[in-house]
Amino acid sequence: MRERTRGSALSVLTPCPPLRNAERGDEGGASSEQRVSQRQLGVRVLVTGAGGMLGTAVQAAVPSTVQLVALRHADLAVEDAQAVERAVARERAEWIVNCAGYTQVDRAEAEPDAAERVNARGPANLARAARDTGARLLHISTDYVFDGRAARPYREDDPVGPLNVYGRTKLAGEQAVRDILPQTHLIVRTQWLFGEGGPNFVATILRLARERSELQVVNDQHGRPTYAPDLAAALWKLIACDARGTVHCANEGAATWFDVAKAAIEIAGLHTTVVPCSTADMPRPARRPQFSVLDCTRYAACTDSSLRGWRDAMNAYVPRLDVM
Ligand SMILES: NC(=O)c1ccc[n+]([C@@H]2O[C@H](COP(=O)([O-])OP(=O)(O)OC[C@H]3O[C@@H](n4cnc5c(N)ncnc54)[C@H](OP(=O)(O)O)[C@@H]3O)[C@@H](O)[C@H]2O)c1
User: Which of 148, 164, 175, 257 is at a distance of 20 to 30 A from 66, taking alpha carbons?
Assistant: First the structure.
């Protein structure tokens, strides 16, 4: 377990507008708590799954005077209900940020029980512990709860329809959190993460680009590449404005994996040729949505801000890798 404390208070800067009636009508009007006050808060926050890509970024972006308790998988396995109960009671956190996840989308097809334990049972345990202690829960979910057949970016209350085990278990986790904390949950759906602290598509592509002169990359899946540190900063903003319900959050601009690969290779100054191909050319165990671009309007309304464009974020990330 690692605990970090920083100096001054978490600033609450921008008004959080009334939340739209999302999912099941339990997020209707804005309460006074949904509006941001100008005062500053000191908050104790427990992060689970702290050793992963997003967990690492959440720790790095911690605002001053937030007392952070960072629990890695080895410190707390979220599917262990008693351990979760003990940890949440012991830490007396005002917020729990659940960055733990079974994130191997293809492997989940062969290990549905393992994925279910982490992605569904884990958040349910955390939600119960939050309910019992009065803590707030911020749970991270995914664009893969959608079936990818939309003709426009997905809004928070659009119908879900996961195509794979990973998406189904993540959706079950969302539903458990909503059922247990109908008024106070915060579920942030994001997509296509890249960043330090974990394997990701950009790092993999750049490793392969150093080894090969040509790479084939899928060009018919559309999403928003999202830089984990940008998302982490956004999560702290959502906590600061006491957001509730479901919120989509990703870097600006849509892309295909082909676009992402080309941009990464170009920024890294490599000369590997990137050849577009279709999903059908590269069969994988798990089906993916063809179009899962998230509409982040609600995040913008909540925080009065948006994340920078994904290419700008990649310009910041790629030079930090040791492929340059
Ligand atoms: N990566 C993406 O593109 C993406 C897209 C959309 C949403 N998300 C969501 O974002 C969240 C963070 O993902 P990430 O990209 O940071 O993934 P990650 O790098 O794989 O991190 C997940 C972390 O969860 C930990 N973990 C696994 N099983 C656990 C358990 N039973 N109890 C406690 N911790 C456990 C892992 O530890 P070990 O490695 O030690 O097992 C790892 O540190 C997840 O909820 C994921 O579903 C990710």
Answer: 175
Over residues 13-17, the mean pLDDT reads 34
Q: How many domains does the chain have?
A: 1
Query: Is 59 within a domain?
Result: yes
> If you ran DSSP here, which 8-state letter would residue 153 be given?
P
In this structure, is residue 7 part of a structural domain? yes
Q: Select which of 102, 166, 227, 317 is catalytic.
A: 166
How far, in Å, is the centroid of ligand 1 from the Cα of 112?
15
- Whether 223 and 251 have beta carbons less than 8 Å apart is answered as no
* Backbone CA torsion sign across 248, 249, 251, 252: positive
Measured between alpha carbons, how far is 6 from 171 in angstroms, rounded to an integer?
34
pLDDT recorded at residue 33: 35
Is the separation of the CB atoms in 194 and 203 below 8 Å? Answer: yes
Q: Considering only CA atoms, which residue is closest to atom 37 of ligand 1?
A: 73
Tell me the per-residue pLDDT of 176-218, one tens digit each, with 9 for 90 and over. Answer: 999 999 999 999 999 999 999 888 999 999 999 999 999 999 9
Q: How far, in Å, is the centroid of ligand 1 from the Cα of 48?
A: 9
- Domain with 97 in it: what CATH number? 3.40.50.720
Among 46, 47, 53, 102, say which to mutate for ligand 1: greatest number of ligand atoms within 8 Å of CB.
53
Q: Is 317 a catalytic residue?
A: no
Return phi, psi of residue 237, to 5°. Answer: -65, -40
